[in-house]
Amino acid sequence: MATEIRVPTLGESVSEATIAQWFKKPGDAVSQDEPLVELETDKVTVEVPAPAAGTLESIVVKEGDTVEVGALLGQIAEGAGAPAAKAEAAPAKADAKAETKSEKAQLVDVVTPSAGESVTEAEVGEWSVKVGDVVKADDTLVELETDKAAQEVPAPVAGTIVKIAVETGTTVEPGVLLCQIDPSGEGAAAAPAAAAPAPAASAPAASGGSSMPPAPSAQKMMAENNLSADQVAGSGKRGQVLKEDVINAIASGATSSSSAPSAAPVARGPVAAQDEIREERVRMTKLRQTIARRLKDAQNSAAMLTTYNEVDMGPVMELRKQYKDLFEKKHGVKLGFMGFFTKAVTHALKEIPAVNAEIDGTDIIYKNFCHIGVAVGTDKGLVVPVVRDADQMSIAEIEQEIGNLGRKARDGKLGMADMSGGTFTISNGGVYGSLMSSPILNAPQSGILGMHKIQERPMAVNGQVVIRPMMYLALSYDHRIVDGKEAVTFLVRVKESLEDPQRLVLDL
């Protein structure tokens, strides 16, 4: 069985690296953790150790190639090289390796769980533990983010964290090793020893010369700012100058010793460098990437148009005021606006079925049911859980379901089934103070209703100017399937139901 050698995570803002040099060639025997290849980025040089003992079977990428994080570098054939390595080692080392192997056999692997039928990968979020920490069974180890939801990974057993195999920001598939736990608890003593060699990697900060040329990005920045190699202290391996070193040198006031004509371009350098230092680069979560992609796809594929109207919320507000205490006492949930809006939408969808349909190639699929998506804002982004068969539910049942889905969304416990199959979406920007907006379709749906802030405005009622609690409504729709007349009629029906709630009771 072959063990893969892959590009490790290189840092939050680093997505690729260049192969600097291979220390081994195919057929060479390697021992576990022995450096195999050196990678260069604009921030650091990294040695990739052997993940297992054996024989270097193949090298996939050659020196000078650029590779991305996670790319396959080569493979190690297990077994063939291991005996040779042991034969050269002293008997004491052989005994130590045997003990280590015995200890490793007791370790418990924590792997990426399956996140759902259509979810094939997840991104590693923040780790709640570090190597050497003692955990109890079911303690949260790490949070995984998919394009649908976040999922906490608990400890399967009590013990000591002896290895964290993937860093924050790494994309992993189901079954990939996340970390290892030593249930005996003896791994705690080994953790500091394993971490001790780390400072040595940053020790060789070059003072004058360097045995390696500057990294390509550093070379370019030095040329742009007229800096020479002796003006920048390299912090990379063997004193190599990295991009970050150049930025630090510019920020500290390093200038070229060349003649006055070059002063003008150099003067712009420190400002740009200082701005770059003050910037913060944060990796987009899987959820945010999916939101961005789906919204842009909706704009690109649909003939999206928005029509507006306004609704007098006085009748609904009076009804809530009159019955809210009795409603909460009987149904165990507060009487909000979403129940009325959802019910009004389902009534309008029955009259205008095109708004509840979707396009599939050259076909139109009419949905004879109303699964209403309710957009919910969370700290991780916008999610749209679905109230299924809302047309068959009472206002009380709708409010209860929306409350349950909202709690699950805030707790990060929404599953795939909670967010799939919606036929129409309601988005309430009014809770954040939005007075007017044009919502973007939740593809492949053909309609989305935008609710907004209730604001008192002077209105003409029966020839008199009166102050009424008004709300702007916005219906965005796919003009490929919904005509303007249908869209306007739909919005008018929603308005009529809200301004005369008895229509909802009488099914008018």
Automatic annotation (TrEMBL):
Keywords: Acyltransferase, Lipoyl, Transferase, Tricarboxylic acid cycle. It catalyses: N(6)-[(R)-dihydrolipoyl]-L-lysyl-[protein] + succinyl-CoA = N(6)-[(R)-S(8)-succinyldihydrolipoyl]-L-lysyl-[protein] + CoA. One of its GO terms (cellular component) is cytosol. Coiled coil: none annotated. One of its GO terms (biological process) is tricarboxylic acid cycle. Residues 200-220, 253-272 are annotated as: Disordered. Pathway: Amino-acid degradation; L-lysine degradation via saccharopine pathway; glutaryl-CoA from L-lysine: step 6/6. Its cofactor is (R)-lipoate. Pfam families: 2-oxoacid_dh, Biotin_lipoyl, E3_binding. It is an enzyme of class 2 (transferase). Residues 2-77, 107-182 form the Lipoyl-binding domain. The keyword Transferase applies. Its EC number is 2.3.1.61. SUPFAM superfamilies: CoA-dependent acyltransferases (SSF52777), Peripheral subunit-binding domain of 2-oxo acid dehydrogenase complex (SSF47005), Single hybrid motif (SSF51230). Forms a 24-polypeptide structural core with octahedral symmetry. Part of the 2-oxoglutarate dehydrogenase (OGDH) complex composed of E1 (2-oxoglutarate dehydrogenase), E2 (dihydrolipoamide succinyltransferase) and E3 (dihydrolipoamide dehydrogenase); the complex contains multiple copies of the three enzymatic components (E1, E2 and E3). E2 component of the 2-oxoglutarate dehydrogenase (OGDH) complex which catalyzes the second step in the conversion of 2-oxoglutarate to succinyl-CoA and CO(2). Belongs to the 2-oxoacid dehydrogenase family. This is Dihydrolipoyllysine-residue succinyltransferase component of 2-oxoglutarate dehydrogenase complex.
